[in-house]
Q: What sequence folds into this?
């Protein structure tokens, strides 16, 4: 349970860690993207433009958009090589240095991911379901911090926003990925990719370094609407969930293992996990509108 953020000091900061500007294929400038999210009540974002030659390898400098209550992390979407189903790899890198070197000729996605991780950045496999990423792809990629389990732009692109199937398959094999939701905001015609999925990061200060450390440590949860205030494990066989009003709460684990509670506007729920057989669990809170919040996976050893 060490990774769950709920008992940690600080407050939850809301952020979007995957989105684009006019530096690549987005519809708004870096400054406009920051202003949109700040006015929507977000505490931080990362603008992650496509780090590709035809955009001249942009690394969005969002530092001028930082102020006393809103901050930014430098990031990019990194590309190299091919995925099994065809097309180029997409990795999200958050907390990259502004002078992150462009990929060298022939650099593989494995090498690029390792180079991004070596800078201390949070590195994740982007939108697996949208691009039909496979287990073979992820096994070949090797270690990264996270899997993007919800991608807002995929909602209107091919209706495959959610990637829990692949994430749970890899978790079931023992890979300890973190998981997050993001808009992948582009702000262009025929995409409703603003305010669709985000993270709540527990941090004591709204500074990029503090948020990056919390992301790397897994001190966050994801949401498309509901809030999770607390998840507490009691005496090893009960989990107490406090959240915004929910109609279903799930503990999900390896294979088909699950424990569920059903109600009408539940705000404090005790789940009996004495018969839950899985090396890991994760909590899903679903509200009356079908919107969901997800904790990171937590491991019982
Ligand atoms: Zn992408
Ligand atoms: Zn993207």
A:
């Amino acid at each position: 349970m060490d990774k769950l953020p709920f008992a940690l000091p600080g407050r939850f900061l809301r952020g979007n860690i995957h989105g684009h500007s006019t530096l690549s294929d987005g519809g708004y400038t870096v400054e406009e993207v920051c202003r949109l999210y700040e006015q929507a009540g977000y505490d931080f974002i990362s603008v992650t433009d496509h780090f590709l030659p035809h955009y001249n390898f942009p690394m969005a400098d969002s530092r001028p958009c930082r102020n006393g209550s809103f901050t930014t992390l430098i990031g990019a979407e990194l590309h190299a090589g091919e995925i099994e189903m065809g097309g180029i790899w997409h990795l999200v890198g958050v907390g990259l240095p502004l002078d992150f070197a462009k990929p060298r000729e022939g650099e593989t996605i494995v090498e690029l991911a390792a180079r991004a991780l070596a800078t201390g950045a949070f590195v994740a496999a982007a939108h697996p379901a949208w691009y039909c990423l496979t287990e073979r792809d992820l096994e070949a990629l090797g270690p990264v911090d996270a899997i993007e389990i919800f991608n807002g732009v995929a909602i209107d692109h091919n209706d495959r926003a959610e990637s829990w199937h692949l994430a749970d398959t890899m978790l079931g094999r023992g890979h300890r990925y973190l998981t997050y939701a993001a808009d992948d905001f582009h702000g262009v015609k025929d995409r409703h990719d603003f305010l669709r999925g985000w993270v709540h990061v527990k941090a004591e200060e709204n500074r990029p370094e503090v948020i990056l450390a919390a992301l790397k440590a897994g001190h966050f949860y994801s949401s498309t609407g509901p809030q999770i205030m607390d998840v507490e494990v009691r005496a090893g066989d009960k989990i107490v969930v406090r959240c915004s009003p929910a109609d279903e709460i799930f503990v999900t684990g390896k294979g088909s293992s699950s424990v569920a509670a059903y109600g009408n506007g539940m705000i404090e729920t005790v789940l009996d996990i004495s018969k839950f057989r899985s090396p890991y669990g994760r909590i899903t809170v679903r509200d009356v509108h079908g919107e969901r919040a997800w904790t990171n996976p937590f491991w019982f050893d």
Observations:
- The chain has a mean pLDDT of 97.
- The chain has two domains: 11-222, 228-299.
- The radius of gyration is 18 Å.
